[in-house]
Amino acid sequence: MLGFVGAILLSGFFTFVCLYARNLKLSGYSLVYLIPSILGAYFTWSWNLRYVAYVIGFLIVATIYAFLKITEPELGIFERFLSPESLEKRGKLYHAARKYEKRKDYVKAAKAYIKANAIESAAWAYEKAKLFQKAAECYEKLGEYKDASEAWKKAGDLRKAAEALEKLAEEEEWYLEDAAKLWESVDKEKAKRAWRRVAEYYEKEAKEEGVFYEDAAKAYEKIGEIEKAKECYEKFIEYCKEQAKEDEAWLKYVEETKEKIEKSFNT
């Protein structure tokens, strides 16, 4: 009895909210629970257990149906029991892919996801299948170059991993340094060009925030431009001195950088 009363209160409140919001479709769905709950409470009170069982059975079936419609609204009841191959033939490509994935057939899942234009899901499926090259290609189609670079690294193709980071750096320049580090193990000439771009990027940023002069100096050191490196270190020292007027802890960086210049450039 208490269960039916609770169902009446809950579905009644939901029906009121839906009617107030003028959502007739949801109001209709909530009545599917409200009316049987009222009948169930009445039959329980009148001790008509046969009809109580009917009401409970109806509510169970209705709940299962609602759950299925909410989780996969595009599939019919019959289609839920079809194999992924049958779903593919019916054009239910995304749902076929999900079923392939559940049976751990990740390659077929990825191919079905691609047909369904769910490229990111295809990339995930290829990663589960350890086909990192395919996953990287999917990420690149999406313009997700950070994920593409990681996938290329897992595939053992550091050149393409570096290229992906350079594409990412066109929008987010701070990834230039990561690209430069990758190029070092693949192509020294491209690494040098990348480090030059890194140095120029940090030098540009340093005009707004002087702390980046140190990063610029390190990048110039990488490509052997000693005078530019020294110049940036000296600008970093001046920046630290200014900061030290408010916080003496910056003096430590002044001494460390002076020592570095003395050892590296004046020997």
Provide a descriptive summary of the structure in words.
The protein is an all-alpha fold. Among the domains are: about 1-70; about 185-265. About 80% of the residues lie in helices and about 0% in strands. It is built from 15 helices and no strands. The chain has helices at about 1-20, 25-45, 50-70, 85-90, 95-100, 105-115, 120-130, 130-140, 145-155, 160-170, 175-185, 190-205, 210-220, 225-245, 250-265. Helix 1 (about 1-20) packs antiparallel against helix 2 (about 25-45). The longest helix has 23 residues, at about 50-70. The radius of gyration is 32 Å and the shape is elongated.
Helix content: over 70%
Measure the end-to-end span: 93 Å
| Percent in strands | under 5%
Number of strands: 0
Secondary-structure blueprint:
Blueprint: H1 2-20, H2 24-45, H3 49-71, H4 84-89, H5 93-102, H6 106-115, H7 119-128, H8 132-142, H9 145-155, H10 158-169, H11 176-184, H12 188-206, H13 212-222, H14 226-244, H15 251-265
Helix pairs in contact: 1-2, 2-3, 5-6, 6-7, 7-8, 8-9, 9-10, 10-11, 11-12, 12-13, 13-14, 14-15
Kindly list the characteristics that best describe this protein.
single chain; 267 residues; elongated; mainly alpha; 15 helices; 78% helix
Question: Can you give me a brief rundown of this structure?
Answer:
The protein has 267 residues and is mainly α. It contains 15 helices and no strands. Helix 6 (106-115) runs antiparallel to helix 7, helix 9 runs antiparallel to helix 10 and helix 10 (158-169) packs antiparallel against helix 11.
